[in-house]
Amino acid sequence: MMTAGDVTPEAEAMRKEFALERYRYILQQIHAVNENGYRFLAIYQTLATTLVGAALALFVGYRKWGVEPDTARGGIIGLLSLTTVVAAFTVTQIVVGTLAWLDYRNEECDITDQMVAPGFRERPKPGNLFRWYETYVLTFILVSIITMWSLAGLLLLPKVR
Question: I need a labelling partner for 141 at 20 to 30 A (CA). Which of 18, 19, 41, 61 fits?
Answer without folding.
Answer: 61
